[in-house]
UniProtKB/TrEMBL annotation:
Entry's Gene Ontology molecular function annotations: nickel cation binding; zinc ion binding
Family under the similarity heading: Belongs to the HypA/HybF family.
Protein name: Hydrogenase maturation factor HypA
PROSITE patterns: HYPA
Binding-site positions, Zn(2+): C73, C76, C90, C93
Length: 118
């Protein structure tokens, strides 16, 4: 399950971001995961719960924003969803596309610090 190594990297990077911003704890981490990134969101959530234990993210929640895989057809200037499994043929002009525009993302987009304790 490679999601555990991904979750561990997310926790480590989120801790670094939080420390750089002067925060001790993190309440949530948002990640964008592309449809073709090879990551199973449910497995990532489970792995995140394991990886966050004993860290500044111990009580943090993981927010996963899924990104649809989309390709561009140069022949008819149309962007289209490629689906899963991916099908890189333009549904409009029936030509193949080699221009993947989205769907391989795996990035942290937000680290929300926990509310300061009085």
């Amino acid at each position: 399950m490679h999601e555990l190594s991904i979750a561990t990297a997310i926790v480590e990077q989120a801790e670094e971001i939080a420390r750089a911003d002067g925060a001790d704890d993190v309440s949530s981490v948002t990640v964008r995961v592309g449809e073709l990134a090879g990551v199973v969101p449910d497995a990532l959530h489970f792995a995140f719960e394991v990886a966050r234990d004993g860290t500044a993210l111990a009580a943090a929640r993981l927010v996963v924003e899924q990104v649809t895989a989309r390709a561009w057809c140069g022949g008819c200037a149309e962007e289209f969803a490629v689906g899963m499994p991916p099908f890189f043929w333009c549904p409009r002009c029936d030509q193949p596309s080699q221009d993947l525009r989205s769907g391989r993302e795996l990035e942290i987009t937000d680290v929300e610090p926990a509310a300061a304790r009085p």
